[in-house]
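Review form for a predicted model. The reviewer records the input and the model, then writes brief findings.
Reviewer: anonymous (R2)
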Amino acid sequence: MVGAKFQTLERACRVTSLVTSLGAGRAALSQRWRWIALLSAFVPLSFVLVQCGQAPSAGTLAANVQSSGDSFDDRFPKPQFKDRFPTASESLVQRQPVEAPPKQTAQAEPARYRVASLAPTVPYGRSAPREDQTTLVSLKTSAFPYLGNNPHTDEPFLNISKGGRRGHRSYGGRVYWQDETYSDNRVLMHVPENFDIRKPGVIVVFFHGNGATLERDVRDRQLVPQQISESGANAVLLAPQLAVDAADSSAGKFWQPGAFKRFIAESADHLAELYGDPRAAKAFANMPIVIVGYSGGFMPTAWSLDVGGLSNRVRGVLLLDAVYGELDKFASWIESNRSGFFLSSYTHYTRRHDRDLMQMLKEKGIAVSENIDAPLKPGSVVFVETPEGVTHRDYVTHAWTDNPVKEVLAKMAATPALTRIAASAASPASQ
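Model under review:
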């Protein structure tokens, strides 16, 4: 009896244990289903988030651009460099970037400087070999375009309009159009290989004559950059384009008060870049100036001396068959600036005006010399007539001597007094 009861109790315990195991299994299974449900909810959301993080396709971009009414090039135009460098039709070669130096080995000495720039550079120590640097640079302060008045008539300079074009009727009666003749704002800049910013130097500003372009005439025919390099003087060149290949002597912006000063100030940074040392900009901005005016270049020369704002920094004026007018402006500058020199060389074309200017100066008590072989000293005023057979067209290379620009700069460099004046004028304190 007792054994039967024990067996019954044992079966009851087994049933209870089985029920308990089934309950635990059912609970575990329920827990698994809950995790599966949660995962099934989050997985689609993760796919959505991944899609949101991806960039739109090219088709989507194209659709968006088309709907906005413009193209990618319209919204983000490519950089344009045509205002700073010669065009394909011109012969001036762009300066090439300096090749990267070879990688230093573990035994090599560390570099003395680091250049953090993509622009062509030259080491500041000036230890690298140099060559003459010549280029064309567009300046806002160059002679043209010009939208102001002609000071001689107090009327708009662009006094002709036809079919949407604006132009200027010259003194000779010919009409020159703005887009062809008065829109080139480039300046021919030249830094000789032997130029040293640490020494006293001068900026030569060359105003060309009628019917000229910077490359064809100033550089290739008149050899102005070459004359400066061969002179041995510590000088650089600025030659703004005036009326392009036209019989017109208009000064453009140089008619305006302070325009010459703004022109020199803007040029300083570009000269420093061409020289290869941006730190030289301050020295260029304060450097003394020699103005050379040839033929029709008399007009911007006279107005730069009169209202340019830098007459006290001009240490010399060289006129090459160029005294066609504005005598009062030249006489006034000579009288007020006795530390600089004035030299006018002329043919029979300008003889009458040169003689008139000589008489004006004598009446002011200013000594005038007609001896070109005399030393060029501060305050020198020299007029020299060239003999028959010397042509006006070739005057920049064949006047009283071959290459007169070179000759005058060499005389200036050989004159200690002028060198001292140039050095003192380069000091910011003298401005």
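Findings: The longest strand covers residues 314-320.
Further findings: Residues 15-29, 36-88, 93-129 have pLDDT under 50 and may be disordered.
Recommendation: see findings above.
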